[in-house]
Recover the amino acids of this structure.
């Protein structure tokens, strides 16, 4: 397999349908990243310290949500520049990784 | 965006409500980490080799659970020292990452 | 705690029961990795660009699935050699990490 150096990204939000759907659509339609996966957490808290937790199965609007994607370091840098005004500070984490293809 | 070097942590447990809730509460109340997200896996196994799997929707107590958090390397080192006696060996994984804020 | 250098692996698939169950079984029975966790995403897309999304709770067959595991760099290299023909190109991501035990 060929190995390509990438930057791996995790963006932390809560499960506000519209906002996260907008970000995924943008990564898909405009930024054209290689792939995106969205995960819903079962509980968590952010810098505000306020706990988000699933107490009722049908009340998932306030749960943590992670939008995960990866692409070349240059492309991720460009995407993060575009996202800067849309994501709260401290909610984007990146690290170097390798994709095997 | 400003970039801060952090240590990213994933702690692997099974879905024993009390034990993981205790850990999240501790990270929140005492260690005051920047944020924690808890994810439930749909199946998995640990060093024991015993499979954990969701066969019944309402029987989720034995599913894998990951508690994810990040903070400065010094703070994470201190937290891991505190957790040493509470988490089974081989169930904590860390790597260096960058938070954008 | 003792620290051991590992390679952390995430394999991206969709929720085709048989295929992912086969991979987990193989990692368990044959490769004997230290542990595997499977997570189901709530939406996502891969290199094909086609969106996978949960619209109906009971129609989860097409959702993204991540199979996560870690082991020593040598062992992971050997496992990835074995998986080469089973996983679509660009669907395996790895990075160096540390396990605490």
């Amino acid at each position: 397999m060929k190995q390509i150096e990438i930057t791996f990204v995790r963006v932390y939000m809560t499960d506000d349908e519209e906002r996260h759907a907008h970000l995924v659509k943008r990564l898909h339609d405009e930024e054209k990243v290689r792939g995106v996966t969205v995960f819903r957490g079962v509980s968590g808290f952010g810098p505000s310290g306020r706990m988000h937790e699933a107490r009722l199965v049908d009340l998932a609007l306030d749960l943590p949500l992670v939008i995960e994607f990866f692409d070349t370091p240059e492309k991720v840098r460009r995407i993060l520049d575009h996202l800067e005004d849309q994501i709260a500070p401290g909610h984007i984490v990146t690290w170097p990784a390798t994709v095997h293809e």
Remarks:
- The longest strand of chain B covers residues 3-14.
- Chain B has one domain: 3-100.
- Chain B touches chain A at residues 1-2, 6, 8, 24, 28, 32, 34-40, 65, 70, 95-101 (CB under 8 Å).
- Chain B is about 25% helix and 40% strand.
